Amino acid sequence: MPNQWLIMAVVLVLLAAMLGALHAYQARGNASPEAVRKLVHIGMGLVALSFPWLFRSAVPVFVLAAAAIVLLGSLRRFAVLRRHLGDVLDGVERVSYGELYFPAGIALLFWISGGDPLLYCIPLLILTLADAVAALVGMRYGKARYATVDGSKSVEGSLAFFGMAFLSTLIPLQLFSDVGRAQTLLIALIMGVLIMLLEAIAWRGLDNLTIPVIGMLLLNTFLKLGTHELLVNFFVITILALVSFGFRSRGTLDDNALLASVLIGYVIWALGGWLWLYPPAILFIRDRFRSFHAATGDARRHNVQSIMTICAPGLVWLVSYRLTSEALLFFPYVLTFAAHFAIFEATRLLHRFPRTNPWALLASAVAMGWAFMFVPYAFLLHWTREAIGMSLLAAVPVALAAGAFVVLQPHVDDCPRDMPRWWRQAGGAMLAAVAGLLVVFWQVTRA
Q1: What is the CA radius of gyration of the chain?
Q2: Which three-class secondary structure state does DSSP give residue 253?
Q3: 136 vs 298, which has greater pLDDT?
Q4: What is the rounded average pLDDT of the residues 83-93?
Q5: pLDDT of residue 92
Q6: Among residues 283, 282, 274, which one has the least CA distance to residue 344?
Q7: Interior CA angle at 40 toward 34 and 41, to 5°?
Q8: Looking at 18-96, which runs of residues are DSSP E strands?
Q9: b/e per residue 146-182 (b: at least 16 CB within 10 A)
Q10: Residues near 46 by beta carbon (within 8 Å), at least 6 away in sequence
Q11: 3-class SS of residue 1
């Protein structure tokens, strides 16, 4: 154990020395703040690559992560440290906590990978190299921009991220595993695409936490799949991307939200299959043809945060299904999207027909949300008596969610798009699902 503590001390000394060297480099060479920030990440990542061979358990890694977070956080907090070293981290204009998420992501990665060198090193290589290359290529060559929550990113930077993520997966698998060449190529392609999407939609440095954790979970899953299954996964990602960007010109989603929709669509398919994909697909198509944007020409767009809050209630039930294998949880899952459909339709109708009785418009919106989601529900479940009965009862939770939103949301007829609106809408969708659980319990007790 003393050796473990000595190693931890050496790692912390290396981190402090690296910060000092980069501060001196920035002061003398007038280096770009973003470039220096990425050099910090590269240095931390390369040191952390040695952890599977240095530590026998995750405890020292978590202690190191906590110490690094305290040290890096102190550079923001204390004026003396900030004056001498803080410009290494705070020189960029955007708000980011990436340097704090970075050690936390490494510790979580080490823990969930069990210290397995391959499962640990590949996601960390992607985080260390691909993220840095994307930022540097974007700064130097980025011309085609797309909007993000933090400002904008470049297509060139995202493509550079994909290329480095692809190589960071392909080369270790080729050299240090017995995975076949075709499988290795497909795993590298899928990892590159999915983690590129994950990096593109992240904000305020969250990618430093999500890339290693989700990257490891994806890698661990793909290593268990055969060539045919990997081909199907790649095919699904490609189809989702083509469909999403085929709707780009008329829908309300900005480019970042479209990338998020591809990623979330893949996650839904991977966890639940094609059946679970139809409710968000219907909501997506509805956005193309009947949205507030399509009806009014409103130029405002939905961003990635709105997509996340819309899908989050449904994902709760999908994950619950995966953990329990309880097929009846599909009902509250569909209810969340029916509630969203009704709420979107209510905002559109209230704007378009301001002189019409609002309760009549709300009833129309509820009817549409119910019909578009639960007629397919009954059909896909083969028109069984139970499916028809549950579909009919679903109208009550949908009406409850849409009515609560219309009452609680200020200026609902102007289709506000601030975060409080999305939280209210997500809350309404979850309310519908929880109310729908009563229907599920009734169905279970009857059986």
Answers
A1: 24
A2: strand
A3: 136
A4: 52
A5: 47
A6: 283
A7: 90
A8: none
A9: eebbeeebbebbbbbbbbbbbbbbbebbeeeeebeee
A10: 128
A11: coil
Locate the domains of the chain by residue range.
2-225, 268-446
CA distance 390 to 413: 31
Instruction: Provide the pLDDT for residue 305.
Output: 82
At 295 the pLDDT is 47
The residues, any chain, with a CB within 8 Å of residue 126's CB and separated by 6 or more, are 164, 165, 168, 169, 191, 195, 211, 212, 215
**Which of 71, 56, 64, 55 is CA-nearest to residue 19?**
71
Helix (H) / strand (E) containing 152: strand 151-154
Which tokens hold the place of 311?
């899908």
Backbone angles phi, psi at 152, to 5 degrees: -155, 160
Between CA 285 and CA 278 the distance in angstroms is: 10
In this predicted structure, the answer to whether residue 128 has a pLDDT above a threshold of 80 is yes
Handedness of CA 271, 278, 250, 408 (dihedral sign): negative
Q: How far apart are the first and last CA of the chain?
A: 58
Mean pLDDT for 38-50 is: 84
Strand runs (DSSP E) across 182-306, as ranges?
none
Q: What is the pLDDT of residue 145?
A: 80
Residues in a beta bridge with 153: 146
Own/partner long-range contacts of 438-447 (Cβ < 8 Å, ≥24 apart) = 439/331, 439/390, 439/393, 439/394, 439/397, 440/328, 440/329, 440/331, 440/332, 440/390, 443/328, 443/386, 443/389, 443/390, 444/328
Average pLDDT of the residues in 421-445: 86
26 close to 39: Cβ distance less than 8 angstroms: no
- What are the Cα distances from residue 262, in Å, to 268, 342, 434? 10, 23, 27
